[in-house]
């Protein structure tokens, strides 16, 4: 029974890494839509979110059946509940990518991000995408070291967010209120994707070691 | 054993309604800080968030001990996992109140919301606070009807959010980029508090009926 339990648990983590791969595509494509004003790509991100939701529901179902059939004890129980929470957070990261795509879509054929903000916004997007990619590897490898490192690198996103505020609140901002609001909300969405990435990575640490790097 | 189980489950729901009461205070006081520029109130909201986090951890611990000791079957299992998710969402609503308080604090002794936006922002805040108050009653009474109604009323918040965008993107916006960014982010925070309220109410429906009003 213990062996069957761990096989099924491995199955859940394989599913989680797959969802994380779908989220990675969503973040990348939403950014592409944002930076190019490509409505087709934006629509794809929005349309593909259903698949992420469905994959999350499958993880839920598997986890519940595992809990019911195997009646795991305290430690294993916490591992499965962690997996449920990881699935919820990954789904949320997909939703945030959809929010980015929707801002891109609203501004078509223009581009939401003014030229002078593009370097900072591009770095925020790349940082978010990079964190999602690393989370995927962390889930696959159950890599505690990499997970702790990811938590430390979250500071990069905070710095970029502060820089974007400095830029859009500078006296020589020429792009009006709409672009400023777009940039502020986009920054918030990428920051939340980064936050969730750290949280998912922390749950991997918990699954492997039984302790969180910090309570979250 | 079944009776002990349901007593403990009632205890978890009592704790959840208490957390919801703390969140209601947080939303109300954060709004007060926002509308008056009162730094002391803002600091209180920020300081009190630790109590919400601690209360959430206690719910987690009780739920896990219930799962471990009682080994509930499928239906009861889903109820307890729902309670865990409700606790997570309530904690998140507390965090969002802190975000509102922090924007208020940043602008002290000024007030973040320009006069002409105050009616809309006040209505968003009141709508959020009202939803949190209703969620608390819904948790206490396990009131499925009220929960379904709450889901329908979420549309009010969407309308207010759209109105705030119309106002701040209007040609005669005189308050500059900083105020516009503040208003956009504040609107986002209140909207998320409303979203989580609906989600918590939906989980109550699930706990009582075994079905969600819609999958979330």
Q: Could you describe the 3D structure shown?
A:
- Two copies of one chain form a homodimer.
- In chain A, α1 (2-36) packs antiparallel against α2 (39-70).
- Chain A has 216 residues and is an all-alpha fold.
- Chain A has one domain: Up-down Bundle (Methane Monooxygenase Hydroxylase, Chain G, domain 1), CATH 1.20.58.
- The two termini of chain A are 32 Å apart.
- Chain A contains six helices and no strands.
- At the A-B interface, α2, α3 and α6 of A face α2, α3 and α6 of B.
- Chains A, B: It is found in: Cytoplasm.
- Chains A, B: This is Phosphate-specific transport system accessory protein PhoU.
- Chains A, B: Homodimer.
- Chains A, B: Keywords: Cytoplasm, Phosphate transport, Transport.
- Chains A, B: Residues 17-103, 122-204 form the PhoU domain.
State the CATH class of chain A.
Mainly Alpha
How would you classify the helix and strand content of chain A by structural class?
mainly alpha
Number of strands of chain A: 0
State the domain count of chain A.
1
Shape of chain A: elongated
**Named CATH topology of chain A:** Methane Monooxygenase Hydroxylase, Chain G, domain 1
Greatest interface and its participating residue counts: A-B, 26 and 26 residues
What proportion of the residues of chain A form beta strands (DSSP E)? Answer: under 5%
Distance between the termini of chain A: 32 Å
Percent in helix of chain A = over 70%
- The oligomerization state is homodimer
Low-confidence stretches of chain A: none
Q: What is the name of the CATH superfamily of chain A?
A: Phosphate transport system protein phou homolog 2, domain 2
Round the mean pLDDT of chain A to the nearest integer and report it. 93
**Largest sheet of chain A at a glance?**
none
Individual helix count of chain A: 6
**Cα radius of gyration of chain A in angstroms:** 19 Å
Report the CATH architecture of chain A: Up-down Bundle
């Amino acid at each position: 029974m213990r062996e069957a339990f761990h096989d099924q648990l491995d199955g859940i983590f394989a599913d989680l890494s797959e969802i994380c791969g779908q989220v990675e595509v969503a973040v990348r494509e939403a950014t592409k839509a944002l930076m190019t004003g490509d409505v087709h790509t934006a629509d794809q991100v929005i349309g593909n979110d259903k698949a992420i939701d469905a994959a999350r529901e499958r993880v839920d179902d598997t986890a519940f059946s595992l809990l019911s059939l195997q009646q795991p004890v305290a430690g294993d129980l916490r591992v499965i509940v962690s997996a449920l929470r990881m699935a919820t957070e990954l789904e949320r990261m997909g939703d945030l990518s959809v929010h980015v795509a929707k801002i891109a879509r609203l501004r078509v054929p223009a581009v939401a991000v003014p030229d002078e903000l593009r370097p900072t916004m591009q770095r925020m997007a790349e940082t978010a995408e990079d964190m999602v990619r690393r989370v995927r590897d962390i889930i696959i490898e159950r890599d505690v070291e990499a997970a702790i490192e990811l938590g430390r690198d979250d500071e990069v996103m905070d710095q970029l967010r502060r820089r974007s505020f400095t830029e859009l609140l500078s006296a020589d901002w020429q792009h009006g209120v709409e672009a400023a609001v777009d940039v502020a909300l986009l920054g918030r969405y990428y920051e939340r994707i980064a936050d969730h990435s750290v949280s998912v990575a922390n749950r991997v640490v918990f699954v492997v070691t039984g302790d969180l790097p910090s309570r979250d």
